[in-house]
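ENTRY TYPE: paired fold submission
RECORD: A
CONTENT: sequence, then structure tokens
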Amino acid sequence: MKLKGRTIYAGKAEGEALVSKDPLSFYGGVDLEKGIVVEKGHCLEGKSIAGKVLVFPNGKGSTVGSYAIYRLKKAGKAPAAIVNKECETIVAVGAIISEIPCVDRIDIAKIKDCVKVKVDAGKGEVEI
């Protein structure tokens, strides 16, 4: 099944989906050296985002989150791609400066955790 959305940053990636029902803060919510979600009580707490197709409704928190995504990329712990319901500025800037394929306006409820997902962000497509 192909889902159509909006391109935030073009590129292609594929991998295992890591799906969150909760918004995610990269600054303070993710260990930037390990790529592990550390936010207490978050549905992804303790899970690694490294190399995954990270699916979440939207970002939250400080504008420093854009740089946090960039740090994850430099450390080799960033997600392979980002898929959002609504990508706000923090995540968009982070994806762009880190060159991470990113698509939004996707019905993320149709993506299940741990399934293989292909992202063609240039076409705004997510294939399950």
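RECORD: B
CONTENT: sequence, then structure tokens
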Amino acid sequence: MQKLLIKGKRNLSGSILISGSKNATLPILAASILAKNVNLKNVPLVKDIFTMIELLKFIGIKIKTNKKNKIIQLKNTNKKINTLAPYKLVKTMRAGVLVLGPLLTKYKKAKVSLPGGCAIGTRPVDIHLYALKKLGANIKIKDGYIIAEAKKGLVGNKIRFPSISVGATENALIAACGAKGKTVLTNCAVEPEIIDLISFLKKLGNIIQISGRKIIILGKGLTYKKVSHKIIFDRIEAGTYLIAGALIGQKIVITNVRPSIIKNEIKILRNIGAKIIVKKNAITIIKSKRMKKISVITKPYPGFPTDLQAQLMVLMTQTKGISKIKENIFENRFMHVPELKRMGAKIEVKNKVAYIFGPTKLTGAEVMATDLRASVSLVLAGLIADNRTIVNRIYHLDRGYEFLENKLRKCKAIIKRV
């Protein structure tokens, strides 16, 4: 099993090109089931994307991947589509359930395995199923599979989500594009990745309006033309490297970004004490010598993302005083805490709140990744720790970070995979 070896206490400087968004690419790949011919650019070369590609190939879609130029071409001209998403292809990736909506709306049936992914909480698919039932689907769960059918096709409806869910919003949004009539979704997630999905769906000819947390969809049937789409930048990757710069950066320039999308994260890092210079498509960050404590609550966008909580916690170990993080999204999102404590961090968790005491000297240790974002938090900790840090189970990292070691090495980090 592969692991990362990190030698800490190296000041980082250099430039990091941010990849396309994994969390935008996955629903857009699923939505490509609706189209005949799709050309996607700026696609991140990470494990979850290749898993989704394998799933779409299994369904019957022809796919060509140009890794050098980060382009994926999809053709759906197969008349014998397989409306099954098997356990073996969904078990490692939460986003596998996103093929449910497009298969159901286009082929009037789907059998999709209950999903896997990071073990950071229950994340039930109840809200997905609730929305699809409102569109007229008959759904049952049997032997670990969601079995859905809409013999006469889906029909538009008014749907209010009982709680804000990114995946359920995406599934309902895609499904509504093939439904008859108008669909009105309220209490929606409005993450930038969903806005990117809407941009893609509009290119297919759908009429979609968004106002606050309300989305109105007028599906235009399913005879879609050839479309080309460039994936938005990965704001979580950008946030991760900004935090690395705040931790140990002499001067790090983050490129291929839209700073307006991550203005909340920039504000928080400035409040801690990092010096940040924002330009049109780039952000420069310089470590502060005096970092202040801060309190943060994870919330749906535009609030602070749960996917950056573990990384920010590492930065909080270096701030003066007691910092706090309240985790409002996932109940098991503090699994990185025991590993950070093994490196010397002083952290207490009570209910949904982590109290981080700083500044604390971290020392290299052998640690184990438990999920995607926890694993990168251990890499960040290793960058500032004394001696050598060994991060095990880095297959989690490969699910969502493209060329992590290469990007850090270009900024003078000492890090290698063995």
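NOTES ON RECORD B: The chain has two domains: 3-19+233-417, 22-230. Residues 235-248 form the longest helix (14 residues).
STATUS: closed
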